[in-house]
Amino acid sequence: MSSPSPHAAPLPLLKGRVLAFAAILLVSANLRSAVTSLTPLLDRLGHVFDFGSGMTGVLGMMPTAAFALFGLATPRLIRRIGLERAAALTMLLATVGLLLRASAGGVGMLLFGSAVALAGMGIGNVVVPPLVKRYFADRVGTLSTLYITVLQAGTMIPALLAVPMADRYDWRISLGMWSLLSLAALLPWVLLAARAPRASSPDAPAAAQAPGRVWMTPLGWGMALMFGMTSLCTYSMFTWLPKVMVEAGASETTGGIMVALYSAVGLLPSLLVPALAVRMRNPFPIALLAFVLNAAAFAGLLWAPMQAPWLWAVIAGLGPSTFPLGLTLINLRTRTPAGSAALSGFMQGVGYSLASLGPLLFGALHAHSGGWGASFGFLMTCTLVLLTAAWFACKPQQLEDHWR
């Protein structure tokens, strides 16, 4: 358990901690539903709306593009309206976007609804860490473990239910039912936002103060590159692991199971890493272990994919341990909600911008070379960048000491 922080939430906020606890977990459960509820149905929707691989690619790139754009824009939004109102806006946009997408009569509305929902989720990615800092500064490790685990579960469950629900009912039900969950998450934030002072008020918390320049600090770039390289490798594996296995001789079903196993194993770091990170003065050994796991998985998938496919999937699923590490370090390397919001926005904005290039470059290298050697070589290079960045991100320091 992390020790109480001198910057813990002020007494008036403690009265809302139970409601904030539920609200943070509900938001976390919604941060990927617009992504993983759609991707299993893209082939079916292509037949319904008569679009091909080009539009499928556009829909596939929208999440990382939205997360990058709103990662960079959200700290300014937080300074204007405050954390609680930004969280409420997150779930309002998600609810509206999911409903618009489920009622789409053509590709245009499908794209527009997806954009609205992903905008909300992009804001939510940035808002959650400073909310943890504001309400639970004395329990950063515990809350980080909980919200990251809920986020991972919220990534898996819509993907598992998408096709069965579409088969049993309709694709509109399958896509639209997640709006009920985002609506449930909206309600507690409306209550919390009504209690919170406006960002322009003299009683507003430090999150409303003007931040320093995160982009001029080694910590900011270390966090952004560590997170970006982690996400780049993860999205590349999500996109291309089935094809790697099929070309090695596995069935399409096996390829799909490998991705599911890769995703499921990712729950373990979410449970363990935040608790470990808060107990370590310098958690760089976690990043070093992640580097070794990535290297082993990439080598196995390249040189012996069918000799131990399940082992490679498990090792690869443990590789992105730097994802929960990065989210936890947002609060461990800042003193205030303002610092947490600024670091969260910069890390995720730059990180997701880099991540959006991963699947594209991985596939382009495969198409150019005819094999997977160049593609996995590219991922290994990215993991070396990740390890170097983690050296700066994990060093004991506080953002506020360097960002002015």
How would you portray this structure in words?
By secondary structure, the protein is an all-alpha fold. It folds into two domains: 1-210, Growth Hormone, Chain: A (Up-down Bundle); 211-404, Up-down Bundle (Growth Hormone, Chain: A), CATH 1.20.1250. It has helices at residues 11-14, 17-30, 33-36, 42-49, 53-81, 83-102, 107-135, 140-168, 171-176, 178-195, 218-247, 252-265, 267-277, 284-303, 309-318, 322-332, 337-355, 358-369, 373-394. Mean pLDDT is 88; it is low at 1-13. This is MFS transporter. Pfam families: MFS_1. Keywords: Membrane, Transmembrane, Transmembrane helix. The chain crosses the membrane at residues 57-74, 86-104, 110-132, 144-163, 175-194, 215-237, 257-277, 284-304, 310-330, 342-365, 371-394. Residues 18-398 form the Major facilitator superfamily (MFS) profile domain.
- What's the structural domain tally? 2
CATH superfamily of the largest domain: MFS general substrate transporter like domains
Through-space gap between termini: 31 Å
CATH class of the largest domain: Mainly Alpha
Helix-and-strand structural type: mainly alpha
The major pleated sheet works out as: none
Enumerate how many helices there are, as a single number.
Answer: 19
* Number of E strands: 0
Order of helices and strands: HHHHHHHHHHHHHHHHHHH
Give the C-alpha Rg.
Answer: 20 Å
- Unreliable segments (pLDDT under 50, ≥5 consecutive)? 1-13
CATH architecture of the largest domain: Up-down Bundle
Shape: globular
CATH topology term of the largest domain: Growth Hormone, Chain: A
Report the mean per-residue pLDDT as an integer: 88
In what range is the share of β-strand residues? under 5%
Q: Classify the helix fraction into a percent range.
A: over 70%
